[in-house]
Amino acid sequence: MILLRRLLGDVLRRQRQRQGRTLREVSSSARVSLGYLSEVERGQKEASSELLSAICDALDVRMSELMREVSDELSLAELAASAAAEPVPAPVRPMLNSVSVTSVAGVPTERVTIKAPTEVADVVAA
Question: How many CA atoms lie within 13 A of 80 on its CB side?
């Protein structure tokens, strides 16, 4: 199961780390307790829109940019989940039928055996 709060927390943490800032610096700037911000980053707490706005302001990041990155992460996670859920089909080896030909258009020929997939066994004489 894909948890939005976990993806959001991952993106927030990456934003903060890209800036080389500590949890303490961002929590102080956003006026959020250090422990709560840590829980949001770890995906353990749901962040309200007000809290997200304060964190985005502290990180000097637009909320739309944050949400776009979260949306991209969600798309990738959904693709990965659906790919893992779909069984990988085993390669299908066509069944071959043997067809013996002893004459073509009524003219005797050497005996020839043709192996062809069952669904493609039409032989047309010219």
Answer: 8
Element (H, E) at 113: strand 107-117
Q: What is the dihedral of CA 37, 43, 46, 48, to 10 degrees?
A: 50
pLDDT tens per residue, range 45-63: 999 999 999 999 999 999 9
59 Cβ contact partners less than 8 Å away, ≥ 6 residues apart: 12, 15, 16, 19, 21, 26
Contacts of 36 (CB under 8 A, 6+ apart): 27, 45
Q: Which ranges in the chain belong to alpha helices (H)?
A: 4-18, 23-30, 34-41, 49-59, 63-85
20 in the Ramachandran plot: left (φ > 0), alpha (ψ -120 to 50) or beta? left
| Per-residue pLDDT reduced to its tens digit, 18-33 | 999 999 999 999 999 9
